[in-house]
Amino acid sequence: xxxxxxxxxxxxxxxxxxxxxxxxxxxxxxxxxxxxxxxxxxxxxxxxxxxxxxxxxxxxxxxxxxxxxxxxxxxxxxxxxxxxxxxxxxxxxxxxxxxxxxxxxxxxxxxxxxxxxxxxxxxxxxxxxxxxxxxxxxxxxxxxxxxxxxxxxxxxxxxxxxxxxxxxxxxxxxxxxxxxxxxxxxxxxxxxxxxxxxxxxxxxxxxxxxxxxxxxxxxxxxxxxxxxxxxxxxxxxxxxxxxxxxxxxxxxxxxxxxxxxxxxxxxxxxxxxxxxxxxxxxxxxxxxxxxxxxxxxxxxxxxxxxxxxxxxxxxxxxxxxxxxxxxxxxxxxxxxxxxxxxxxxxxxxxxxxxxxxxxxxxxxxxxxxxxxxxxxxxxxxxxxxxxxxxxxxxxxxxxxxxxxxxxxxxxxxxxxxxxxxxxxxxxxxxxxxxxxxxxxxxxxxxxxxxxxxxxxxxxxxxxxxxxxxxxxxxxxxxxxxxxxxxxxxxxxxxxxxxxxxxxxxxxxxxxxxxxxxxxxxxxxxxxxxxxxxxxxxxxxxxxxxxxxxxxxxxxxxxxxxxxxxxxxxxxxxxxxxxxxxxxxxxxxxxxxxxxxxxxxxxxxxxxxxxxxxxxxxxxxxxxxxxxxxxxxxxxxxxxxxxxxxxxxxxxxxxxxxxxxxxxxxxxxxxxxxxxxxxxxxxxxxxxxxxxxxxxxxxxxxxxxxxxxxxxxxxxxxxxxxxxxxxxxxxxxxxxxxxxxxxxxxxxxxxxxxxxxxxxxxxxxxxxxxxxxxxxxxxxxxxxxxxxxxxxxxxxxxxxxxxxxxxxxxxxxxxxxxxxxxxxxxxxxxxxxxxxxxxxxxxxxxxxxxxxxxxxxxxxxxxxxxxxxxxxxxxxxxxxxxxxxxxxxxxxxxxxxxxxxxxxxxxxxxxxxxxxxxxxxxxxxxxxxxxxxxxxxxxxxxxxxxxxxxxxxxxxxxxxxxxxxxxxxxxxxxxxxxxxxxxxxxxxxxxxxxxxxxxxxxxxxxxxxxxxxxxxxxxxxxxxxxxxxxxxxxxxxxxxxxxxxxxxxxxxxxxxxxxxxxxxxxxxxxxxxxxxxxxxxxxxxxxxxxxxxxxxxxxxxxxxxxxxxxxxxxxxxxxxxxxxxxxxxxxxxxxxxxxxxxxxxxxxxxxxxxxxxxxxxxxxxxx
Length: 1166
Description:
The chain is α/β, with parallel strands linked by helices and 1166 residues long. Among the domains are: 1-113 and 1112-1166, P-loop containing nucleotide triphosphate hydrolases (Rossmann fold, 3-Layer(aba) Sandwich), CATH 3.40.50; 226-266 and 897-979, no CATH class; 272-312 and 832-886; 318-371 and 769-820; 384-421 and 722-759; 484-532 and 589-637; 533-586, no CATH class. It contains 30 helices and 13 strands. The protein has a 5-stranded antiparallel beta sheet with strand order 2-1-4-5-6, covered by helices on one side. β8 (1049-1055) and β9 (1063-1068) form a beta hairpin. α6 (184-201) runs antiparallel to α27 (984-1041) and α29 (1119-1132) packs across α30 (1145-1155). The protein is flat.
């Protein structure tokens, strides 16, 4: 089911808003709007339309709850379009398209697939909050495969919390299968058992009490005797073992004493002394060489400084010499400028004389200055000149306008039209054209209907061709006795269950075989390090030892000679048994691993046998199911493929039949539109007749429309042109009268212009008859004369200043030459060249002074280095002397050799101390001399035999001690129970209370455990049914969405590291695993979206497609991943309608770039 149109008639803040979602090419509808534009309202409207407006809706704030109204055009799977409206209420809330007839409330149920509002929102509704909650739920589940698939496919979240809470509550009560004394259930069970025992034993007689006390007394006496025997034997064995431990240590101590005596006596010098001594000797030699080198360098520096001579005296005049040198360029420029300024002065005087002659005046400066006109006079004359030019131009313009108006009047009279169209015919043509327009773009609708019919026919052919090997005509398809989809779904579920079972069997077989191989390898590895001292092997070694001892003991006790090989054989048996026992203690972990591996290997072999039998039974079940599947399709004459293929065939068959019905509807639509086209053509031909156009009898309605509209427009243009020509003639005649009045006014103004002109001309030396042009020329000459006078005065001032500067520079040069004459021999130059000569001499003096300063610094540095070298040599000699005095070494002694001997003595003493500590530990703190005395003359073989005999006695005593202790505890417990009995009546009441409490707790535990198991099994069944197809599809979608980045996830897999809890894992491009807990928030969001898309595709393949509604899914995605996500939604749009709400403009742009014509954008205005 699809929504072709959503009408928000009165809903929220919407009033009469409609969204057209019927575009067949659009695989994705993006509804964009800013905040507060109503995206959430439109999203809520879809759910309210399908399932009803809630009782307490908050969307009636504008229109009121009773006035809420939503409408839609729903495209049903069978090709029909249903117009419905939804109002708020308790009954009859679903209406037909006109809003007047109530429809059954369950009329939409067949196309909702059995979903209620909550299930629809969970599966077909997804917003950012649910997307983020799904990612966090996957993280909380650790990627658990079953829970992840179930949450993504159903929309439910928090499964881990529910199962954990159920399991925790059951664990708090206690499990009937595992006894835990601290749990309430087992406390009740134990209380009941205790009360029942009291009831049974209440009738005990006095003889039982006496027998119980006698049993306790006898057990205590036997236990005391065994403990005394055991303590005696352990003391003896401990003494003999101590002697065996200390004997080799005492021998090593004797060897160390001999070595220390051979090392001799000497000072106890530290090991670091040798290195210090060598370092001090090296420093003394180095410092001596440096002292010789620095003394030689100091002598050379003093000689060079002496040869450099004294500091030059000219440096005292450095400042005035540099100042004079800097003024040299300025004075050269002044000397060059002076002749040029004098020439400019002469030229200005010549120009002034010429200007004076032009206006009839003399060239004297003072008289000319007195005759210059003032600014007011110049402004008044120029205003009069401008006024004359303006008045003359006004007269010229008025004359030109009058002539133009005369021409236009004559032309307008010639352009009056000869004929005008009839008004009545033109009105009839207007009415006919309006009637044709009421049909709208009927030719476009006719073309669309024709193309829709062609597309429907082509789509029917394509859908029929897509049936592949089942391709039949639509009529034959309708007649086939096909099985219902639910039967096909059950077959698919059965096959999927068998396939999952087979895959699990294969995984279990591989795991069992791998486990067996691992265990065999583990046994080989454990045996590779030597024979494993298992309890059976140790027991056999002890039996061999006891057998040899049984042969040897009579000879030892009776003093008779033993066989020659008896003692060595007994000694070897003792060593073998002790070695195995020691190795058992040392290799306790290896022994335990070996025994565990042997046991696990036997269990793994049994497991493999059971799996083989289970595989054979599974194969028989698959054959039976395959035969039933073929029989199901035999009446239709079809050899079936897989259930998925046949389910797709049934879906495609329904689509083909719906397309056939749609084709018939499109044909009816084309016939209706063709009738409208005929009526429109009749109206257009009437327009042609009334407007004088020609009908060419063309079959094209578009051409007829163009001709009729052109003829009508031409008639209207002709009528409008006649009206405009008459209006234009009136306007032109009025303009001619106005132009005549303007010309007369301009001539009068020009005649009154000349007042005051004669007096002003006399002031500037012109006659009263001078023209305005002559007056303007005379004013320009007087302005030039004023400019030349200003320039002549300025040049006089500048020439005087240049002459003063040149004289001052020459005086300063002569004075500085005189002062430097004695400091610089041979300095004889003119005053103009003094600056350069003095500056060159100053630079030479500075060069000499700098060289002398450098030589002086070199001498000071050499002096410091010589002092440092001498000090270092003294310090090195003092260091050697200090080392000898500190360690009391004579002057002629070889210090490194003495240090090596002292180090050898310290090593021997340290080894002796270490052995003495080890001896104290091995000898249990006893005096070393007593231990040495005890081991003197001791036979090692006899010592070993005695230790072995004592070990056997101790082992037997320990076994007796354990058995007797058990008997004592049992006797004491029996006696204590008799002592605390309180009567059969109280015991019966206690038993009844405990039984009631246990029954209540067991019932609650059973309910909690059943709920947990049912939920877990539902999740596992969903995983079994969807694991492989859903993961493959989700992996493909995720790889496309997460393709950006340096090492993206390219597919999904199942990790069976823990066979009881397989987890979902991503595989990156380099082959590494990406576990859910290692993924970023954005990648987890995309994984959950991919799983949801795959789940929706799987759902709509088995049930009626419903619109998938999403809201702001790409908040955490960049541009590349947003485009990839939009493509994934568009792929989902091939099987069901997809609507995405967003307030981000970049999502709209990304959708248009990625999908082109396959996306349709709807905009909501704020």
